[in-house]
Amino acid sequence: MGIMSWWTKVVLNRVTFKDIRATTMYGMDYRAFAMNPWSSDMIPMQYFYDTKFINCEADSLAYFMEPP
Known about the structure:
Number of strands: 4
Mean pLDDT: 83
Number of helices: 0
């Protein structure tokens, strides 16, 4: 259900997001970054290095919501 350590550090190197659209071919929302409703309350810090966004729609990058 979640990462089991309070000191976890997520490091992502050379990740490329290419041709991401805001909706799928069936009209559903699609995001590169979104909240997982089943994840634990503690989300570790995530570090991205040399990340590229190539031909991505602005609405496809992230979704932020009011906390429940």
